[in-house]
Design brief:
single chain; alpha+beta; 60s Ribosomal Protein L30, Chain: A; 3 domains; eight-stranded antiparallel barrel
């Protein structure tokens, strides 16, 4: 019983101590652990790269033109990050797409070299697309700020373009506007809290067969391989939401909380041992005069010295008068109320303050009528026999020490502990065990 009560008391004491301990030991990051976190969710990006009509999705004939030509393009975007793994961005792109050597020269009996080497140049006046950006999970579970962030994008866009071609099976077109679907992938390198290097590749599927000035069997498409820089907007010092790893943050916070709990447990255990040592010292009786050290006003009295309730030698020997002791119902009622109201701290022999009033009446009764009193401590059968015997004895001695402190003669009070050996109810139920945990008062 004592072991379980001690564990419960330790847990309860930690709850009470946590506020003061954490206030003293926690650093500024820990005290704000559960505050709402701020992130940079808006960002802008600028990039440049190579535009070509070749894509991984082209057929073996490579679309309408067999040989791609790379040309410079440039673009930018504005992005809103919704959660760490998902954001929405508006992309802008301009530049030229080129190619030569048309694949389909049917209807021409003997194509000339000029016809075989003819080509096209499509100018993208402007394009705008709205895409979903999916950031793949943080590759490191131990860092809150991700350095490498792979991503994929997909969306829909609208553009204005014109084609200029000298291919015999095509013709130049004025500026026309068409829908397209951009699909891309890439990765970002977080060089700081507010700046990322962006490396990506996007394939745009045109909803038009005449993007290159030549009408083929399938809709045209082109690709854009780019490198750029992304700058996060928002409060200085805060992290970007897309680079934040919630799992790593939880691991870090859990480690900090574990360290704080260990410190709190260590402090609580030190306090418990200190209190136990002080309690044993206070209730000890070094001079063996029947008065506990805590209440002994005259420590170190010689052996066999007759002392008063404060532990000081009596100036004149007390005259012993033997007379018949008559115990009335009123006396028994005083003792009964004291037994009923007697309570101790959990797992300890420390009397609670609410029990003092009725114990004071018992002490006054002993002083007034010179009764003798036997105190018998009992426990239930929970815990070891040795712990229960010691606890029952300590509680009986604690009651005796209190009565003596209120003027009762220690020589007329006997304190004994029986542990679980004299139950008055079954120990198989909580109610029965409660009845067995008691201190009995016997007047005589």
């Amino acid at each position: 019983m004592n072991s379980k009560i001690t564990k419960s008391a330790l847990i309860l004491s930690l709850v009470g101590l946590s506020t003061s301990l954490f206030a003293q030991d926690m650093n500024s990051d820990t005290t704000k652990r559960f505050d709402k976190k701020e992130f940079r969710t808006w960002s802008i990006g600028l990039n440049g790269g190579m535009l070509t009509h070749y894509t991984p999705f082209n057929s073996t004939s490579n679309g309408d033109f067999a040989t791609p030509q790379e040309s410079w393009g440039y673009g930018g975007y504005i992005k809103k990050q919704i959660v760490p793994g998902f954001g929405i961005q508006a992309d802008f792109l301009a530049g030229k797409v080129k190619g030569f050597r048309p694949n389909n020269l049917s209807g021409i009996d003997a194509p000339t070299d000029a016809q075989r080497n003819s080509g096209f140049e499509t100018r993208i006046d402007w394009s705008a697309a709205l895409s979903a950006n999916f950031t793949i999970a943080n590759l490191s579970l131990n860092k809150k700020r991700n350095f490498l962030s792979p991503y994929v994008t997909a969306g829909a866009g609208y553009m204005s373009s014109s084609a200029n071609t000298d291919a015999p099976n095509g013709g130049s077109t004025p500026y026309t506007e068409n829908w397209f679907i951009p699909v891309g992938a890439g990765f970002k390198l977080g060089v700081s809290k507010g700046v990322n290097i962006d490396l990506g590749y996007t394939v745009s599927f045109m909803k038009d067969k005449n993007f290159d000035g030549t009408i083929g069997a399938a809709n045209d498409r082109f690709s854009y391989a780019h490198a750029g820089v992304e700058i996060a907007l928002g409060k200085k010092g805060t992290s970007q939401l897309q680079n934040f790893s919630p799992i790593a943050a939880i691991r870090e916070e859990s480690a900090a909380e574990s360290a704080e709990l260990r410190r709190a447990l260590s402090t609580a255990e030190q306090n418990r041992l200190r209190d136990q040592e002080q309690y044993a010292k206070d209730l000890g009786d070094d001079d063996m005069d029947g008065v506990a050290n805590k209440f002994d006003k005259c420590p170190g009295t010689p052996a066999n010295t007759v002392v008063d309730g404060a532990g000081c030698p009596l100036k004149t020997p007390t005259r012993v008068v033997t007379e018949k002791v008559i115990i009335t119902e009123a006396d028994r009622k005083v003792v009964g109320e004291a037994i009923k109201n007697l309570e101790f701290d959990l797992g300890k022999a420390t009397i609670k303050a609410k029990s003092y009033e009725t114990l004071n009446r018992v002490a006054a009764l002993l002083v007034e009528k010179n009764f003798s009193l036997k105190l018998a401590g009992h426990t239930d059968n929970t815990g070891s026999m040795a712990l229960n015997l010691r606890l029952s004895k300590d509680r009986a001695e604690s009651v005796k020490a209190y009565l003596v402190s209120q003027g009762a003669n220690p020589s007329v009070i006997e304190a004994t502990g029986y542990g679980p050996n004299q139950p008055i109810a079954t120990n198989k139920t909580a109610a029965g065990r409660q009845q067995n945990r008691r201190v009995e008062f016997s007047l005589f």
